[in-house]
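Exercise 3.2. Students should predict the tertiary structure of the chain below and write it as structure tokens, then compare their answer with the key that follows.

Predict this chain's 3D structure.
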Amino acid sequence: MYDCIVIGGGIAGLQCSIMLGRYRRKVLIIDAGGGRSSLCRQYNNILGFPEGISGEELRKDGWLQAARYSVERKETMAVSLSQESGSFEVETREGVRYKSRTVLLATGVEDNLPDIAGLFPCLGRSIYVCPDCDGYEITNKKTVVIGSGDAGARMAETLMYWTKDLIVIDHLSKEISPVFEELSRMEAIPVIQGKVDQIEQKDGIMAGLKLDSGRVLRAEKAFLALGGSRPVTALAEKLGAIVTGSGPVMTDTRTTATNIEGLFAAGDVSIHSQLATVAMGEGAQAAIWIQKWLRKRE
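Answer key:
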């Protein structure tokens, strides 16, 4: 019987596990890999890393830190979550079952990433998804928005704060509202209908991109704005946790507790701003309240 099973070994899950380990709790991380933090090649906005750090490095260092406090980890996927007689049972895809007094859902968000050759080496280095995290990186640089309809138009409007040298590619050929068409006209932002076939890059540094028409556009940076990214909430929903209309798990903003007793959620799966630094804070916050929950019952 574990004190806490953490489902998801990203930023929120690792931070929570480190703190629970320091509370001398018996903790198991079930981590299927993948997720946004594993894809990001470089975070530039995290305190203490002025030269940036990749999500892979951050996760690796986080796991080594958690292991110091006897936190266990299973590299597999949790496929079932149930609750009975005051404890939880988590089943993995191999059919192995683990029991715990509490569970933290840190399953993150599933990004809608296009199948474009050369894209993945650039993520976090020259192609981004979050303007709050990485808008600074495109300051006065020629930037392409690989978008879809109004999602792409809204991203362009946001990015104008950092650069006016923008091109929007309507990668999925969705309709753009007249409001954004007018914005494009007034700000002289060209909108190109067509799909991106390939990112021209070297070591993650973008030089341009090639469209399905054969046209090549030169640009230094790009943002993805295709919409369709959703929190991974299947386990929470099966257990009866409340999710919002837009997808995230509903939690108490102070404790990260869900409506299910003993079930907590932190990071991108819950309602927050989808920043690595916020996920880290929520993971720490969850650990504190999981400890309080356990102590109260002891």
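Discussion points: The longest strand covers residues 97-105. The mean pLDDT is 93.
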